[in-house]
Amino acid sequence: MKRSSSFKGYILFMTIVMLFLAVRTQLSSDFYSKTCPNALQIVRTEVLKAIKTETRMAASLVRLHFHDCFVNGCDASILLDGSDGEKFAGPNLNSARGFEVVDTIKAAVETACSGVVSCADILAIAARDSVVLSGGSTWKVSLGRRDGLVANQTGANLGLPSPLEGLDAITAKFVAVGLNITDVVSLSGGHTIGRARCTTFINRLYNFTGVSPDSTMDASLLSKLQNLCPVNGDGNTTTALDQSSIDLFDNHYFQNLLNGKGVLGSDQILFSSDAAITTTKSLVTSYSINQGLFFNDFANSMIKMGNIGPLTGANGQIRTNCRVVNS
Ligand code: HEM
Ligand SMILES: *[C@@H]1O[C@H](CO)[C@@H](O)[C@H](O)[C@H]1NC(C)=O
Ligand SMILES: *[C@@H]1O[C@H](CO)[C@@H](O)[C@H](O)[C@H]1NC(C)=O
Ligand SMILES: *[C@@H]1O[C@H](CO)[C@@H](O)[C@H](O)[C@H]1NC(C)=O
Ligand SMILES: *[C@@H]1O[C@H](CO)[C@@H](O)[C@H](O)[C@H]1NC(C)=O
């Protein structure tokens, strides 16, 4: 009798442990409610400070979360230092920014609750707060991601979309991480804030290949950008991705596309390419006339993107310093 009841107790205990582990493999919005109840507020305060110092930081933080999630899942792998890291991959080199701000946020969170909140979750929260503080929609951020142990430079070079790619290639990269064509369009709306360097769109401005300048670009935008980005000029010069409302999170990005005023080739093809006619063009039009629809879809797609390959349970770790794996 005694043995059997302790055996039942053991089974019950193991069942509870397994249920607990099963629950922990799912992200949840209240993940830190007991272990770090002020985490969300602390991140928000630090993001607000950073944006007050430099408005563009909102865009840079949104992009960091995107570039993190597309490479080995949302595991803060982009934050790891080292010449073999993701920071030195083509899409991030001289481009990804905001790392010092993430350090500051992490330090503030560590002071409140040491060793509890992951760098991957900080990126997800900071991205949401950046959108809200720029005038965009809000959503409940799913939490409980753990930090990865490796960076993947090859993965970043192969998995992140390029502004020179066609719609099919870009869509394939989204599909590879579990997103779909609706997500391609809604998330491209992230380009309603932030800047791009001449080097990322100069291919559209001159007759380098015998087919440019890009005939889908509005003539006045073309001459403006030719002035900004002369051949053999400074490829690091930047301009607004949304030329009509640079730091405001709104649906002007999509209105611009209807007018040939997308800056990147990968932006304008959502409306102007042949491939767009049967895929993305109608959704671009819908977002251009219905900001509420864009905000709603953007929020849903951000939640979806934040769910790409998270490390949970006993996988990964909570990094102390976002730039290095714990020793
Ligand atoms: C669809 C494929 C995408 C391509 C090809 C692409 C490409 C680019 C490029 C080339 C830049 C300029 C980088 C530079 O000049 O250094 C940029 C900036 C940016 N991207 Fe994307 N992007 C894509 C999707 C996204 C997504 C899904 C998001 C987030 C939801 C996003 C958010 C941003 C933001 C906010 C900036 C401005 C960053 C800053 O000012 O620091 N992009 N993107
Ligand atoms: C890096 O990413 C590629 C996908 O592009 C994947 O096949 C590979 O397993 C990843 N490597 C590591 C070490 O995570
Ligand atoms: C994309 O996925 C979302 C759900 O995540 C769904 O609502 C939407 O209809 C999908 N879009 C397409 C074109 O399949
Ligand atoms: C671009 O260059 C090619 C050959 O180099 C030429 O045939 C074509 O007319 C040029 N197009 C424009 C728009 O200047
Ligand atoms: C942009 O600046 C970085 C360093 O600040 C430099 O290494 C790089 O060569 C510059 N790129 C271009 C295209 O001028």
Automatic annotation (TrEMBL):
Gene Ontology MF term list: heme binding; lactoperoxidase activity; metal ion binding
A family per Pfam: peroxidase
Residues bound to substrate: 161
Cofactor names: Ca(2+); heme b
Annotated residues for binding of Ca(2+) 1: 68, 71, 73, 75, 77, 86
SS bond list: 36-113, 69-74, 119-322, 198-229
Keywords recorded for this protein, A-Z: Calcium, Disulfide bond, Glycoprotein, Heme, Hydrogen peroxide, Iron, Metal-binding, Oxidoreductase, Peroxidase, Secreted, Signal
Domain Plant heme peroxidase family profile span(s) in chain numbering: 26-326
Cofactor, free-text remark: Binds 2 calcium ions per subunit. Binds 1 heme b (iron(II)-protoporphyrin IX) group per subunit.
Annotated residues for binding of Ca(2+) 2: 192, 242, 250
Binding site for heme b: 191
Enzyme class: oxidoreductase
Cell location: Secreted
Site note Transition state stabilizer, residues: 63
GO annotation, cellular component aspect: extracellular region
Catalytic residues identified in the record: 67 (proton acceptor)
EC number(s) per entry: 1.11.1.7
Family note: Belongs to the peroxidase family. Classical plant (class III) peroxidase subfamily. Belongs to the peroxidase family. Ascorbate peroxidase subfamily.
Protein name (database record): Peroxidase
Lineage of origin: Eukaryota, Viridiplantae, Streptophyta, Embryophyta, Tracheophyta
